[in-house]
Amino acid sequence: MKTLLAGAQILKLEKIVQMSGAITLFVGSVQLVVNCPSCQTVTSKVHSRYERAAADLPWEGIPVRLKLRVRKFFCHNSECNQRIFCEQLPEVVDRYAHRTDRLNEALSSIGFALGGRPGAKAATKLGMQTGVDSILRRMRKAAARPPDEVKVRTLGVDDWALKKGPNYGTILVDLEKRRPIDLLQGREAAPLEEWLKRFWCKPDNYG
């Protein structure tokens, strides 16, 4: 279920502060136990606490920032090399990221719909502070798929401008699943031909 608070199942809202044209949400983790990222051992022993920040989806065009109060834990596994590790917030924000997962998803969707420069302008007007390069990075990440996951019967191909001037890219879209699957540098035929040789599955390959 979608909520105003990202990760409402693992985060607790402590207070809301509005200042300097932005809303800041102070939230804390409510996870009772966590898994060591190296060995997956379950632990609840807290080492220390710290704070990290991440931008989230805007409210009525007002930028929203999260102040996340999270913890470091001890790993109980004596054979694990990682004795202390930072708490992760799955489906909220990636490790070291400065934007929530759902904000990144929104930015990539805007980029695919409008392109880099127009997408950045539209996102900024909506309260999602970003730039052209940031939009393009998220588009590339969203489009990336391991080769064994690429099985396309109906492929859509279009070129788009990276920025003003002769700088173009080619976007490949699975028209059946209605999602982007890859981005190619330039708009020449050779990279597309190579991609088709490597990844495209002919219809008769499907049962």
Short note summarizing the structure:
It is built from 4 helices and 10 strands, in the order E-E-E-E-E-E-E-H-H-H-E-E-E-H. The protein has helices at 101-114, 116-125, 132-143, 189-199, and strands at residues 11-19, 22-29, 34-35, 42-43, 46-59, 62-74, 84-86, 155-163, 167-174, 179-185.
Description:
With 207 residues, the chain is of the alpha+beta class. The chain has three domains: 6-92, no CATH class; 99-142; 144-205, no CATH class. It has helices at 101-114, 116-125, 132-143, 189-199, and strands at residues 11-19, 22-29, 34-35, 42-43, 46-59, 62-74, 84-86, 155-163, 167-174, 179-185. The strands form three sheets. Strands 1, 2, 5, 6 and 7 form a five-stranded mixed β-sheet that branches. The chain is globular and about 55 Å long.
